[in-house]
Design goal:
Blueprint: H1 8-33, H2 35-56, H3 63-74, E1 77-82, E2 87-91, H4 103-115, E3 119-127, H5 140-143, E4 148-159, E5 165-173, H6 177-225, H7 239-289, H8 296-324, E6 331-335, H9 336-350, E7 357-361, E8 367-371, H10 372-389, E9 395-403, E10 406-413, H11 447-457, E11 462-467, E12 473-480
Length: about 475
């Protein structure tokens, strides 16, 4: 037994939740794993901006005020020295390493900056206090207090308007990593809670929007599968579902038509079967009860109705075999003119005395390649159809002529004709026009379906109809001419 599968609603839900969990996991990893790099980048960038601002205003007599302001605002220490290491400007807001250096050490930084292209970036540690562990402080924060602080020193060489060389040294303690981690963690927690909640809501809404119309179509499709062709499909929301809905509604309408035609065909075939059976039963009972009625004429009626019943059953069997794909063509060369002439002659004799007239125009000879027996069925059924629906003149014209590399046979009647709107459907299985059904004089009424299936099997076979209301009908088929 196969394991149960998630429906589309839950699949969408799981995919969205999985995506947001993966995205948030990556965000957490990047944020917490890059804290040190981010802290270093921010600190050095701030030192650079401070030094550049002081150098840009180095010739201003109030530059010391600017340096003090920047020192307090950016929480940095600033020292401006000359080439000999002498201090020109000095500010600080907290314990600073550069303010504890002597002229030689400051001068050494100046030289290193000049050697490095005018800029020197250093990372160092600033001693804060003696060992706090021996002072007996209580509390978690006191016990975890650092003895040193990490700091960055940025030195940039420059010159004033008089050409005097100087250097600006700016120092800042790096942002405390625990504080950054705590801040980042809180922010990530808030973002995670919001995103997870929003994702649940979004996933639920999306799954409903996408899955609900599909589920509705699925329910209707199950009803259609149960044999209810008149079911209506509803659902929409986006293009693909609307197109699927429209296609299913069209299929449902077509199935409804086919079901209607099937029921009509069964009723018509039942009528066609019942009529000869009733006649056979009536005549045989009459001859049984009245010996004087056992005449050759009455016996011939029974034989004729038996043959009619046989043709009907055979036609139904032929149609079933053709549609199942069971028959195999026996292709051979034969004379279409001669074959058609034989069938026309048989029809003339069979309908002799009933007023039907047959006109047959043809070439001397037309050798085609096909299954002779099945092409005979096609010709019989086209002529039978013309007999059933010919006009009051009861004239059926049969024409054989060449059309390119094909031989074409036309069967023409002067009947009422067929509405052009339904011409594409007259070949379909179970289709019957809206005219009242009448039993064929010769044939079963299944002829056009047989014609369609036989001609579709033949390589190069063509069939069709030309008709309109009030102008009769021209049914035709073509077969390729065989090589001599």
């Amino acid at each position: 037994m196969k394991p149960s599968r998630l429906n589309i609603k839950w699949k969408i839900f799981v995919i969205l939740i999985g995506f947001i969990v993966a995205a948030l996991g990556l965000l957490w990893a990047l944020q917490l794993g890059m804290v040190n790099s981010i802290s270093r980048f921010i600190t050095i960038n701030q030192l650079k901006r401070t030094a550049d601002s002081i150098i840009r205003n180095i010739d201003n007599e109030n530059v010391a005020v600017l340096a003090e302001n920047l020192s307090y605002r950016n929480n940095v220490s600033v020292v401006v020295i000359d080439e000999g290491g002498n201090i020109i400007i000095q500010t600080q807001t907290r314990a600073s390493l550069i303010t504890q250096l002597g002229p030689d050490e400051l001068s050494e930084k100046f030289k290193k900056a000049q050697a490095g292209g005018g800029v020197l970036v250093e990372r160092d540690t600033l001693p804060l206090n003696e060992n706090l562990d021996d002072m007996g402080f209580e509390g978690r924060e006191a016990s975890q207090a650092d003895h040193t602080a990490e700091c960055y020193i940025y030195t940039k060489a420059a010159a004033d308007a008089g050409g005097n060389k100087l250097a600006v040294i700016v120092e800042a303690t790096s942002l405390p990593v625990p504080l950054i981690n705590a801040t980042t963690t809180v922010q990530l927690l808030v973002i995670t809670i919001f995103m997870v909640g929003a994702t649940f809501v979004l996933a639920y809404l999306m799954s409903r929007v996408i899955a609900t119309p599909i589920a509705s179509l699925n329910i209707s499709a199950k009803e259609l599968a149960k044999g209810k062709p008149d079911v209506a499909f509803e659902g929409g929301g986006y293009k693909e579902i609307e197109e699927l809905r429209d296609s299913l509604n069209i299929a449902s309408k077509e199935l409804s038509k086919i079901e209607h035609y099937r029921r009509e065909l069964i009723a018509n075939i039942s009528h066609d079967l019942k009529t000869p059976l009733t006649l056979i039963k009536g005549y045989t009972e009459m001859m049984r009860d009245l010996p004087c009625e056992s005449t050759p004429e009455n016996i011939q009626v029974v034989i004729d109705e038996t043959e009619r019943l046989t043709r009907l059953v055979n036609d139904m069997l032929d149609l079933s075999k053709l549609q199942s794909g069971a028959p195999v063509l026996k292709l051979e060369g034969f004379d279409l003119v001669a074959l058609t002439g034989e069938i026309v002659m048989r029809y003339s004799k069979m309908l002799e005395g009933k007023g039907y007239k047959f006109e047959y125009q043809h070439d001397k000879k037309a050798i085609v390649k096909g299954d002779k027996a099945k092409i005979s069925q096609v010709i019989y059924n086209l002529i039978s159809n013309a007999v059933n629906y010919c006009g009051e003149d009861k004239l059926i014209r049969i024409r054989e002529y060449r059309r390119g590399s094909n031989a074409r046979l036309d069967v023409i009647d002067n009947g009422e004709g067929i509405d052009v709107k339904i011409l594409p459907y007259i070949w379909d299985r179970y289709y019957k026009s809206e005219k009242a059904h009448r039993r064929a004089e010769a044939g079963s009424g299944l002829g056009l379906s047989i014609v369609k299936n036989v001609m579709s099997m033949h390589p190069g076979g063509i069939y069709g109809v030309e008709s309109s209301i009030g102008h009769g009908s021209r049914f035709y088929f073509e077969l390729p001419l065989a090589e001599e």
